[in-house]
């Protein structure tokens, strides 16, 4: 009989931790609860992750790996269709790691080792938004000076960081939250667009809303 | 010798709890820490507030009492100057009770009794924004149909709920955060305004930024 590979157990722990953290917040979930959920001993879990901070760090690494190419592509964008696609992909990724930005300051206080990484992620999000807006401005699809683009980038990043937490607090449901978040983000950018780019964005929005559950 | 009035002790407890909750988040502060801080026994604190949930509830009541007339006035507004004043007052109040929206979902999960009240507060914030935008639209200072105004109201409420938490996470400082939050909120509304109303808002903004530490 083959021995179960350690890699497999590590994966199961990470997947289970992610699901439980997303459902209840990282603060409310103990390593013992994770071990119980997947039917291993707390000692076995401890062999793979010495504490909850290591688990949070591992999941943050996965989020960073997924979000980095997305932010890179967004910052090179000069078209409104790219912005639309970006918003949807961003919120899909955010939803899969929603615990990271659910109680952001508590998470940073509880795990000081990962706080600078979360801070850097937000800065990179703002930077990607700023560059995308500069691209749209250069290609004549957006009318806003650099100061306004800077503040708009902060609002876009705020929506792209806090939407899921805000929406959960107000509606108590996660249903369709990523798509609604993407729409709220596009609404923030829309009035700065020239009429042609704005009309294209409105069409994408309308088409997406006409097909609930799907993406444009 | 006069006996110290119970009312006075209750006030000291509430003020100290607010300061500690704001600094560290409600989850990180124990009743014993509050009692120690103001030099009373845990038993005396327990006489006034039976648990942390009661303390959080009392502070939430104070926030509700301060924010209610503000939201009422905002929803009756039909002028851009009112909107500007509202944003500044909102963020000043938020800053004094910042723990309430710092780790919002964790707070709602930790104190289920106050969760519906926080949810209702967010709904009232969105409603006030929606009515203010309808007023600006009727007086010809804002151009947006009802659907766009509804989504913009959600973005304004999102900024007016999450800004301090977001800004703390990205900058690590609370310095001038309310004024910056008010500016971010106004930036969200600005492009929807007619050129005259927009110019007046831009002038208010410029004047305020030229007098750092003061308000316009």
TrEMBL record, chains A, B:
Residues 1-28 form the signal peptide. Gene3D superfamilies: Tetracycline Repressor, domain 2 (1.10.357.10). Residues 30-49 bind DNA. Keywords: DNA-binding, Signal. Residues 7-67 form the HTH tetR-type domain. PANTHER family: HTH-TYPE TRANSCRIPTIONAL REGULATOR RUTR (PTHR30055), HTH-TYPE TRANSCRIPTIONAL REGULATOR UIDR (PTHR30055:SF223). This is TetR family transcriptional regulator. It comes from Crenobacter intestini. The lineage of its organism: Bacteria, Pseudomonadati, Pseudomonadota, Betaproteobacteria, Neisseriales.
């Amino acid at each position: 009989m083959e021995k179960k590979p350690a890699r497999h157990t590590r994966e199961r722990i990470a997947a289970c931790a992610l699901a439980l953290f997303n459902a209840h917040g990282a603060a409310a979930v103990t390593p013992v609860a994770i071990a119980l959920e997947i039917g291993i001993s707390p000692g076995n879990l401890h062999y793979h992750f010495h504490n909850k901070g290591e688990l949070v760090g591992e999941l943050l690494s996965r989020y960073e790996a997924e979000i980095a190419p997305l932010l890179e592509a967004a910052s090179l964008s000069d078209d409104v269709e790219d912005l639309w696609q970006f918003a949807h992909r961003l919120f899909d990724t955010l939803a899969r790691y929603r615990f990271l930005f659910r109680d952001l300051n508590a998470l940073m206080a509880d795990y000081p080792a990962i706080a600078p990484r979360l801070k850097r992620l937000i800065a990179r999000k703002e930077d990607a938004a700023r560059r995308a807006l500069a691209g749209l401005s250069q290609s004549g699809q957006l009318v806003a000076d650099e100061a306004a683009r800077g503040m708009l980038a902060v609002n876009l990043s705020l929506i792209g960081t806090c939407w899921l937490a805000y929406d959960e607090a107000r509606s108590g449901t996660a249903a369709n939250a990523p798509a609604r978040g993407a729409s709220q983000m596009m609404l923030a950018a829309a009035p700065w667009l020239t009429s042609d780019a704005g009309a294209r964005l409105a069409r994408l929005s309308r088409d997406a809303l006409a097909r609930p559950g799907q993406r444009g």
